[in-house]
Amino acid sequence: MEVRDPVHGSIKVLDSEIPILESPFFQRLRSIKQLGFSEYVFPGATHTRYLHSIGVMDVSSKVFNQVFKDFKEGPDLSRLRETVRLACLLHDIGHAPLSHTTEFVMPKVSELNLPEQFVDSPDRQATHEDYTIKSIVDSSLTDSFKLVKEEFGVEINQIAELVIGETQHPKYFTVEGINFFPMLHQLVSSEMDCDRMDYLLRDSYFCGVSYGKFDLDWIIDNLHFVEEKGSAYLGISERAVATFDDFLLCRFHMFLMVYFHYKSVCLEKMLKRYFKFAPDEYSIPGDIEEYLKHDDHHLMKILRNSDNLWAKKIVRNTIPPKIFEAFGQDQTQTLMKLETFLKEENIDYIKCSSSGRLSKYYDQTNIQENKYPLKVVRQVSGHVAQSPRSLFSRNINEATDLFEKFSRAHTVDRIHCEFQELTKQTQSKISDIIKAYE
Q: How far apart are CA 287 and CA 271, in angstroms?
């Protein structure tokens, strides 16, 4: 089976993978838009998590084949390749409708009845990742893995382990005495994972912008694995560090110019208000089979039938006008004074704060989060069985100064309110507050 993709071209799907793609769980992603409310700003952004997930799977195969190009094909390699393909294919299968904001109405993790291995704290609120794990290891989707298990020896728990980044079965991921779990998890979720490699190009394409375009082929051609203390980590050749920098900046610019667009961010805030003020109208069930009904169409139907003010505004795609926008710390004083005035006058307003940094993995205030660091390889030579042990490598943040240059989070704060409905006197006071600090 082949899927015609406008981003990657023809994508091959194995016969044993078809039952998974045809399952109700994966078909549900046809009705989950990749960028949620962004289509109201970028009309072309109607692409779905269905095709994105297939694209991520395809990228993972290309990366896997590059990294293991000097290994002899065998059962162990085939099993790991397929496990990674499926982890990438299914990484978004538990995604909530419309927006990450919808996770606001998810139940406690305990209501999902996840296997103990995948529960860190049963009293916390569930996330889309919890629904992803539940879908993979304990749902009607599980039967769809029969053929890949027979053909490759794939285990569903190990697919889930690659998604969460923790394993209790290192032997499953070991080839020629090297534990490849860290590197394989990096392909699923890391500084330079296959998810990002796909969505930057895909979102850029469908939004009609150029911010997310980077040289995917050059990056893949320069990927390797680096062995340290018996475990393998993802490495990139030193000659491709500049392209990696470009990759990081592409993502940074996509956040600033697309993902943080004031209109889509405000719509997400309005959706959260709807959930808050109409709590009985919509919630996410803990029953994973019931969750199948919850896609964008289902939630939009509920919003259309609601008498809630915020639901009506979302359906009409009308947001309160943006009256102030602050970038960084320079305008904090204006922002605080404006908020104080609005509160004192009992004026309803929406504050939208968007904050992003170049990399959460190399945030100096939270450096322990980088459990599986990307490595930079200076020289690759010799037989693969020897080269990983003899490579000179260092962590990526030691090979580029980009992390240091962009170490601070970039924050955008916006204030929205129905400005035209205010009295002329109030409008004038608001204008004076803003002008006083310009």
A: 23
Domain tally for the chain? 1
Question: Can you give the pLDDT at residue 382?
Answer: 43
Query: What are the angstrom distances between the C-alpha of 317 and each of 12, 39, 311, 313?
Result: 38, 11, 10, 6
Count other C-beta atoms under 10 Å from residue 239's C-beta: 12
Question: Residue 336 domain-assigned?
Answer: no
What burial letters (b/e) apply to 370-393, b meaning 16+ CB within 10 Å? bebbbbbbeebeeebeebbeebeb
> Where does 255-359 have alpha helices with state H?
262-277, 288-291, 296-304, 309-316, 332-344
CATH number at residue 152: 1.10.3210.10
Give the pair of three-digit tokens for residue 272. 């959260």
Residue at 349 is within a domain: no
* Gyration radius from the chain CA atoms: 24
Pairing label, strands 9-12, 178-179? unpaired
In a domain, 338, yes or no: no
pLDDT at residue 369 in the model: 56
pLDDT for the residue numbered 386: 40
Q: Quote the pLDDT of residue 365.
A: 53
Distances (CA, A) of 152 to 2, 149, 155, 239: 20, 5, 9, 35
The string of DSSP letters for 34-92 reads TTGGGGGTSTT---BHHHHHHHHHHHHHHHHHHHTTTSPP-HHHHHHHHHHHHHHHTTT
CA separation for the pair 432, 153 (Å, rounded): 69
Tell me what pLDDT residue 328 has. Answer: 72
**C-alpha–C-alpha distance, residues 341 and 344, integer Å:** 5
Query: Could you tell me if residue 236 is inside a domain?
Result: yes
CB neighbour class for 209 (10 Å; exposed up to 12, middle 13-18, buried from 19): middle
Which residues of the chain, if any, have pLDDT below 70? Answer: 361-370, 379-391, 437-438
Structural domain boundaries enclosing 224: 2-279+361-407
Q: Rounded CA gap, 159 and 149, in Å?
A: 11
Burial 350-360 (b: 16+ CB within 10 A, else e): bbbebebbbbe
- Closest CA relative to residue 13, chosen from 38, 50, 40: 50
Q: Please give, one letter per residue, the 3-state secondary structure of 203-240.
A: HHHHHCCCCCCCCHHHHHHCEEEEEECCEEEEEEEHHH
Instruction: Please indicate, yes or no, whether the overall pTM of this predicted structure exceeds 0.90.
Output: yes
Residue 42 near residue 209 (C-beta atoms within 8 A): yes
Q: Angle at which helices 194-207 and 181-188 pack, to 10 degrees?
A: 10
